[in-house]
């Protein structure tokens, strides 16, 4: 599976209110799922790093960038 396909699936699952972005509470769930016990401690730092436009949400493009960065 390619990163974009994985991001599309993750985005579909974690954008619970289907507003086209992942808000903070949805992001916490996403990070918890991906990083397990490390997730909560790292969540705020990661959120700020990848919320490039500082709109307090993660767009699909920002999610793709995050997945690529975390995978490397």
Tags for this model:
mainly alpha, 4 helices, 67% helix, 72 residues, Recoverin, domain 1
In short:
With 72 residues, this protein is an all-alpha fold.
Describe this entry's structure for a reader.
This is EF-hand domain-containing protein. The structure is a single chain. With 72 residues, the protein is mainly alpha-helical. It has a single domain, classed as EF-hand (Recoverin, domain 1, Orthogonal Bundle). The protein is built from 4 helices and no strands. The chain has helices at residues 3-14, 24-35, 39-50, 60-71. Helix 1 (3-14) crosses helix 4 (60-71) and helix 2 packs across helix 3. The radius of gyration is 11 Å and the shape is globular. It starts with a helix and ends with a helix. The model has no long low-confidence stretch (mean pLDDT 84).
Q: Give the biggest beta sheet.
A: none
Number of contiguous helices: 4
Span between termini: 16 Å
Oligomer: single chain
Assign the CATH architecture: Orthogonal Bundle
Low-confidence stretches: none
Q: Which fold name is given in CATH as the topology?
A: Recoverin, domain 1
Question: How are the SSEs ordered, and which strands pair?
Answer:
Layout: H1 3-14, H2 24-35, H3 39-50, H4 60-71
Helix pairs in contact: 1-4, 2-3
